[in-house]
Amino acid sequence: MIKYLFSTKPAQNLISNIWLLLLRISIGAAMLTHALPKLNLLFSGNEIMFIDPLGIGMTTSLILVVFAEFFCSILLITGFTTRLALIPLIFTMFIAAFVFHGSDPFAVKELSLMYLLIYITIFITGPGKYSIDNLISKRTIS
């Protein structure tokens, strides 16, 4: 146990792979709760009033955020094209934390930063053994 606690090698065992699965599912599902109101706004037929931090237009900003938060979160949950799906999510949370909430106190930008750090962590570690990406890589290698 002491050897495990002080090991510097990345864990590649059953527990770490199950944890990556649970992390992907839980963070993806949590982000979907933020995406659904935006998706409803997109299809409501009402005039779109949404932030435009990059100057690309409110509708375009909303479409890109819905793409990241909704569609990329589904890809994250399934573990399909995980690292590719994380790029828009990382970008969206970076903009949320440092542009949209840039002048706000830490307590306001904290959630965006938490998502950002988790997304970067999954990007670095990969989706784990229990993912569609892993199934595809096994088939292409064989």
Structural features:
single chain, 142 residues, mainly alpha
Description:
The chain has one domain. It is an all-alpha fold. Helices cover 73% and strands 0% of the residues. The chain has six helices and no strands.
Concise overview:
This protein has 142 residues and is mainly α. The protein has helices at 2-5, 14-42, 58-78, 82-100, 106-125, 132-141.
How far apart, in Å, are the first and last alpha carbons? Answer: 36 Å
Average of per-residue pLDDT values? 91
The quaternary organization reads as: single chain
How many structurally independent domains? 1
Biggest sheet descriptor: none
Structural class, judged by helices and strands?
mainly alpha
Morphology call: globular
Kindly state the number of beta strands.
0
How much β-strand is present in the residues? under 5%
Break the fold down into its secondary structure elements and pairings.
Blueprint lengths: L1 H4 L8 H29 L15 H21 L3 H19 L5 H20 L6 H10 L1
Helix pairs in contact: 2-3, 3-4, 4-5
